[in-house]
Specification:
With 466 residues, the protein is an alpha/beta fold. The chain has 17 helices and 22 strands. The structure holds adenosine-5'-triphosphate and magnesium ion. The site of adenosine-5'-triphosphate (ATP) has 22 residues, from helix 4, helix 11 and helix 13.
Length: 466
């Protein structure tokens, strides 16, 4: 993705920036990537030892150095050159803030929202790469570890930092914005992801709005005009506001004539103040359209021409796995692997796409639970089940105990004649559907990350091709 050579820092500098204690040669220079996974330690790099749930990075300090890392950032003594700090995320934040501050020519963009951050980040990066060297996180590195690690990959050749900012509580986004202060802030939507931890949608909006609050007067807030809670963030920023939307007639950037092909890929006319251009997305689902508009709005602010934006969106591919991956098998069965994560909004979006793809066949949904919804969990699962039944599925399979209320919700739709089935795990879900699939059928697999259903989707996708 361009750049990636990092700004060289001596161990003496690292100790000073982090307030840490140096054990080793102060003149040793870190010239490679900063990583928290020792298997990814690269020559010249710095390994940050994190004590996780399953493993303690300190146990891998020597392995990281053997793999080429020149030193380890640690919270307790290790038998290799190190900088000892009190807190690894704080140390990474200090280093990243130093690097961001040393690169004033880099345009920093932050993207937040309840759903679609990674999708939008990947689209936006594929647009800014047309303007210059871009650093963007791989996958969903959007928290107090992934965010600074991404910033630390920037160097003097970097022109754009396209960052994904996540929040599981108030103050999280403000914290990330202090590490690498964005000049451009995109807010996609306010939905139920992690709603349990926040308490409600207004609290979610409060937290996501920390991004626009952090923007400077010369900055740009890019807001979804179709989401009232996002549009209301206009009042919380001193930055110039640019809007995007499908429904909102007054949005700066809009999509008109949205159509879906037989695999659910959207085509639309991109309407901008500079004119209009046709776009045909390669990503699946109508819900990608607002993400594409947000990416377009950001690229437009950075100076990409309308023609390049339309061309870039039409050429952009999915860079992060398990989000609406559509696989048509040799026998005519289609499998949608959307098992990366799930919340009420993204499950509805996937079910809509399933309904579209299954127009000429039968639709099956294998759904695991949606995590972190707190008090609204049961009702949310029931509502999703009701929504699924209304899309007239042939089969609805709920995987695991926590997903069972999905079926209770589906039964509320009395006219629904599909089959509802509760199974304990992914293997049982496979057994239930694999043998009854016929050409033209479409199977959606979706759940929160914790359910690990991507393997089910993978097996289903490969079944007939073996
Ligand atoms: N605008 C949208 N509305 C509804 N669903 C969406 C939208 N954009 C993407 N999705 C779906 O939401 C799921 C997660 O997408 P993505 O990984 O881009 O979101 P995220 O915000 O980065 O999630 P996370 O909080 O896990 O980082 C995928 O199933 C994707 O297809
Ligand atoms: Mg993400």
């Amino acid at each position: 993705m361009g750049g990636g050579h990092v700004i060289p820092l001596t161990l003496a500098q690292i100790a000073e920036i982090t307030g840490g204690r140096l054990h080793g040669d102060p003149a040793t220079v870190v010239t490679g990537e900063v990583v928290i996974d020792s298997r990814r330690a690269a020559p010249g790099g710095l390994f940050a030892a994190v004590a996780g749930e399953r493993a303690d990075g300190h146990d891998f300090a020597s392995a990281a150095v053997a793999a080429g890392a020149v030193a380890v950032l640690a919270t307790r003594p290790v038998p290799v050159p190190s900088v000892l700090v009190a807190d690894i995320p704080a140390a990474l934040a200090a280093l990243a803030a130093f690097v961001a501050g040393a690169l004033p020519a880099v345009a920093i963009a932050g993207i937040t929202g309840s759903t679609g951050k990674t999708t939008t980040k990947d689209l936006a990066a594929q647009l800014t790469e047309r303007l210059g060297p871009t650093i963007a996180p791989a996958g969903s590195l959007n928290n107090e570890f992934g965010h600074p690690l991404t910033v630390l990959r920037a160097d003097a050749s970097t022109r754009y930092l396209v960052l994904e900012l996540s929040a599981r509580g108030p103050g999280h986004i403000a914290y990330l914005c202090r590490i690498a202060p964005p000049r451009y802030g995109v807010v996609l939507n306010v939905g139920h992801a992690h709603a349990g931890e926040f308490g409600g949608l207004d609290q979610v909006a409060q937290a996501k709005g920390e991004l626009v609050k952090a923007l400077p007067a010369g900055g740009v807030a890019i807001l979804n005009a179709d989401d009232p809670r996002v549009l209301a963030m206009t009042a919380r920023t001193v930055a110039r506001v640019v809007t995007f939307g499908e429904a909102a007639r007054r949005a700066t950037l809009r999509a008109a004539d949205v159509r879906l092909d037989d695999l659910g890929r959207a085509s639309f006319t991109l309407l901008t103040p500079e004119g209009q251009a046709p776009v045909t997305l390669r990503l699946h689902g109508a819900h990608i359209v607002p993400d594409a508009l947000a990416a377009a709005a950001l690229a437009r602010e950075l100076g990409l021409s309308l023609a390049e934006i339309a061309d870039g969106l039409s050429a952009a591919v999915a860079r992060s796995r398990w989000r609406m991956e559509v696989h048509r098998r040799g026998d005519g069965v289609t499998v949608i692997n959307d098992a990366y994560n799930a919340n009420p909004e993204s499950v509805r979006a996937a079910l809509r796409a399933l309904g579209h793809l299954a127009q000429d066949g039968r639709g099956f949904a294998i759904l695991g639970h949606m995590a972190e919804l707190g008090a609204i969990s049961r009702a949310s699962h029931e509502d999703v089940g009701e929504f699924a039944a209304r899309t007239d599925l042939a089969g609805l399979i709920a995987v695991g105990e926590e997903a069972a209320p999905i079926l209770a919700g589906a039964r509320r739709v009395r006219s629904w004649t599909g089959e509802a089935l509760a199974v304990p795990d992914g293997a049982a879900a496979l057994d239930a559907v694999a043998n009854q699939l016929k050409p033209g059928d479409v199977v959606l697999v979706k759940a929160s990350r914790a359910a690990h259903l991507e393997g089910v989707a993978q097996t289903l996708a490969e079944e007939a091709d073996r």
